[in-house]
Amino acid sequence: MILVIGGAGYIGSHLVKGLVDKKQVIVLDQFSTGHGALVDRRAVLVEGDLGNEDVLDSVFRTYPIEAVMHFAAHSLVGESVVEPLKYYENNVVATCTLLKKMMKYDVKKFIFSSTAATYGIPKVDIINEETPTNPINPYGRSKLMIEQILEDFNKAYGLEYIVLRYFNAAGADDSGSIGEDHHPETHLIPLILKHLLGQREKISVFGTDYDTPDGTCIRDYIHVTDLVDAHIIALEALIKGEKQAAIYNLGNGVGFSVKEVIAMCEKVTGLKTKIEFTKRREGDPARLVASSDKIYEELGWRAKRSLENIITSAWKWHCVVGSSESKH
Ligand SMILES: NC(=O)c1ccc[n+]([C@@H]2O[C@H](COP(=O)([O-])OP(=O)(O)OC[C@H]3O[C@@H](n4cnc5c(N)ncnc54)[C@H](O)[C@@H]3O)[C@@H](O)[C@H]2O)c1
Ligand SMILES: O=c1ccn([C@@H]2O[C@H](COP(=O)(O)OP(=O)(O)O[C@H]3O[C@H](CO)[C@H](O)[C@H](O)[C@H]3O)[C@@H](O)[C@H]2O)c(=O)[nH]1
């Protein structure tokens, strides 16, 4: 059985939907940002906090857990700067409690959701896993701390792990039944689509004076279904014992500027945006684009879906079941 922590969140719920056909799945989530309705009904759903020792004891005693996939975190960069304690408590301290219980119950296979934010402001155009990590906010630091703890646990206790550093996750499952539903929403693509649905008056572009061809930030957008595929491949490699301690980037290897993303949303939807150009958002690197060659060479995974696929799937979900938000 696979324990998926944070499996009621955006990326976790997509993973659960992809994994339940292959494995028995148990989801642990306290619904701070997740929604029970996103969790595939074939999975066992336990409401609880990953930092709660009693809950973890109960889960590990009750179910034969083969591996843990850990998606649960607070993940708003700006909030992490203002409330670092919240981030260190949930992302680091609670994760240490989980790791302690995993060692207690001899569960030694772990997949961890990390982030491009561990790289900070890289000096290279294409980021690979050798690019120095230098996070510039508590969110990124909290993720890097766990990566370092995993390395120590591997050496000391034989914990086997794969860290997956996602770039910008976006898009929705092909079925249109689950999608990205953060509250509050801060991510670019859902914000543009909500605006095009009339739920927001305009879309703000944060900064037009970056050192990029059109002056707006460039990001590497990766379809959530491609992320799911990568997790399942990584899990299989861990279970087969092919990998004991590995870190991989997950991106498309292609960068799109904020203006290009808006243009693609207009193309896909056939609708016109109203844009407001504002000052830079603090802490945004100009360009974050991944090389995912390492995971291709070692595990054979490569992103298959384009930005157009991403936006088309997200639009389908937003149109059919997207949460309705009032205009503001
Ligand atoms: N969305 C992205 O673009 C992106 C990029 C890089 C990394 N990540 C990482 O991927 C992971 C998933 O991101 P997401 O966008 O799906 O976020 P999300 O907020 O939708 O999902 C996180 C889930 O974890 C749960 N959770 C949080 N703290 C918990 C706790 N203490 N105990 C139990 N459950 C808890 C939440 O209720 C939620 O269901 C996070 O770790 C995030 O840092 C996301
Ligand atoms: O209303 C908006 C929202 C975003 N942006 C811009 O769009 C780009 C993408 O922003 P998102 O908020 O969608 O995503 P981030 O790149 O800030 O964040 C993502 O990558 C980070 C790593 O750098 C973290 O991993 C985080 O969890 C993940 O969502 C940025 O340049 C941002 O400034 C706008 O112009 N207007």
From TrEMBL:
EC number from the UniProt entry: 5.1.3.2
Record Pfam families: Epimerase (PF01370)
UniProt keyword NAD, yes or no: yes
Domain of life: Bacteria
UniProt keyword annotation of Isomerase present: yes
Substrates-to-products reaction catalysed: UDP-alpha-D-glucose = UDP-alpha-D-galactose
SUPFAM superfamilies membership: NAD(P)-binding Rossmann-fold domains (SSF51735)
Family: Belongs to the NAD(P)-dependent epimerase/dehydratase family.
Encoding gene, per UniProt annotation: galE
Cofactor(s) this protein requires: NAD(+)
Molecular function terms, GO-annotated: UDP-glucose 4-epimerase activity
Subunit architecture: Homodimer.
Residue stretches making up the NAD-dependent epimerase/dehydratase domain: 2-251
Enzyme class: isomerase
Keywords recorded for this protein, A-Z: Carbohydrate metabolism, Galactose metabolism, Isomerase, NAD
Annotated protein name in UniProt: UDP-glucose 4-epimerase
Pathway(s) this gene product operates in, as recorded in its UniProt entry: Carbohydrate metabolism; galactose metabolism
